[in-house]
């Protein structure tokens, strides 16, 4: 579908500067508050731009229909393909945000005079600073050159670079080959815009911070238009003239409605906050504008905007990496001298701003360097010769004298760069879940898509094995979301979607009861009332799949379960009890034994959270996670109008898995070892009683085994087998169509419709193979072995499941080799199983691209048993945790699923296990072949 625009369109711009501040009383913007032709009383059209409708925000709030696209003409003569604007845009979109941040520094960054500016930012100053609200640029110039604290380095606000001539020069910079940032971001958007906007729901609000010329933004808007998504797009900028020009160059779309926001970042933040929770939002922050901030300021800025977002809202952020120092240096000091002229022109602009000959640019030179250690480019004015600057105050005639020393450096700009690890840590620290990353072909530039999620599981700190109060809070958020919302009360509480398990209600009582029992035993205190919960909720069931009458010891099953209200009240009392223990070190000194109890209860709850999730995937009555739409659900039909009902779509597929050869004999002992040393009985010794830094583990993880014979060289698949590949196997052996129903080879994770069509069960309901075909297949160990035998026969080779030792080595090797990206497929970063192709693509320079853990757990061919029979000691705190399952029927499962907590997923000694024929667990498989 071709987008069109009208060159005579009159942009609508909402004035945020006075009528919309953090302190102002605000009403929620109605979901239908789209500006319409604003020919209404009160519209302010007296601005520097002669062809723009500027509306005060209060008017828009009172009359939502007074605020959208006021195109004067849609005549055919004015229609042009919007896609052509990418190359024809006459304005740059890499402007500076300094005047945004400095004018509101007390509430946004906490820094009042800091030149951490980025040439690849998105805001500019085209008017005299006195015309903008909230700051006085001449005063800032003088105070920066003569700081109050003696010895403080002199600076000049970056804003001085952006007069009319400075803008022209910077526009030239963005087209220079050496200035790679713009072209790298355009490359990503031209290649991946359709994938990026797949994450933006229909009927969303999109707000761009520091919009600039929209040269790159139009690529995203075109993609939204192709997807036929109804979008309200707001371009935020402080300078009215530039905002008007940019919106006019953008034009008009059929589905995307555009308007401007005239104001600062803080005022834009308040505007974003005013949308109701029912309105999905996506923020755009392109051009590596994050480089304007120090690392601490960037964290503060993201944290402040995160508060304005609702669960499910997105933020697309462009980030320039810590690239080769010479490449960065040349990008800011090009051979043609355009950047030099751009910087030096700032000195001429200062004289205009101050209204006198204050600075002689001939006495300065441009000095630039890339500070590798700090990771920032630094631009300075260097004083050629010692002299004095003299400013005469117009009103009083008083002189301000500023002495300059020879070779003194005066900073005018900092541009921070971010390694992939640093940006990943930034999103972790601000609790923004990264759901997408798109990288330029040179690996120099990234577009990150982060999302505010209902809870956030942070990466555990190695030397802090005791879960913190914050970690408990986030775990309870997840538990309550699943048990109180996704399990719909009261109809689902007694439902048993898996006959081998208790009803959902049992687990709501089991989790607090387990914690309460453990606390009471170690503290020698009574159980929380009602104490009889310890009798019926202490332990659940895991019967033999083939003979459910055979089951380990468990709590008695009552004739009727307690009322849910009493269980919830009990849960809350137990939570209060735990926090009292954690917050009162005098009454409850934290010994290693007490810390172990807290650790055990935390992981126990996290494991049962996953249990409930895979039970919910089997239920047709599950409510999907609120405000977290499935990515495939936010996509609309193709632009040509074809829908799945008109043209059946084939199962999605992925490129064949690659094979990685591993020779354990060449690896260090940390990678080839199994388990780790952590003996419960040592807790009570004087040497370990106060140890709160050594990692905890369950009894089956002890002891550390280093002397076991090594596996021979083996090859392992880079990823797990997918649903489409497994379906191909079943078709090959004659199991297809209606014969899939009830067949022992068919995974329990599949739903077979009457016509034989395959869907994959999820917490969002059945998902067609056109989407889920590329997901790893969740199946039993026996079904995985069947696939391996079939493939061996097909290809004349021998394929098997990996042993525990082999898979452990592969996972440890990956963990030691591939840095984290924030896209790991565990910890609820998404609510369905996926292969981590995105994280693999970001590690293209690494020779070991083995995926996982995550998506689904990995079956092994190893029977669950002690790692070392001589060194194994049964847990005294939870005696039956492992030993009840050393029965030759349970198989070791390693790795993690998408619903696994990071504390479990990232501890490589953790061992999971399930019966070989248990079909419901979130477990898939990959194959090995041996030399």
Automatic annotation (TrEMBL):
Keywords: Iron, Methyltransferase, Oxidoreductase, Transferase. InterPro entries: CTDL_fold, DinB-like, DinB/YfiT-like, EgtD_Methyltrsf_superfamily, MeTrfase_dom, SAM-dependent_MTases_sf, SAM_MeTrfase_EasF-type_put, SUMF_dom. Residues 25-46, 96-136 are annotated as: Disordered. Residues 150-451 form the Histidine-specific methyltransferase SAM-dependent domain. Pfam families: DinB_2 (PF12867), FGE-sulfatase (PF03781), Methyltransf_33 (PF10017). This is DUF323 domain-containing protein. The keyword Calcium does not apply. Residues 696-929 form the Sulfatase-modifying factor enzyme-like domain. One of its GO terms (molecular function) is methyltransferase activity. It comes from Linnemannia elongata AG-77. Residues 493-612 form the DinB-like domain. SUPFAM superfamilies: C-type lectin-like, DinB/YfiT-like putative metalloenzymes.
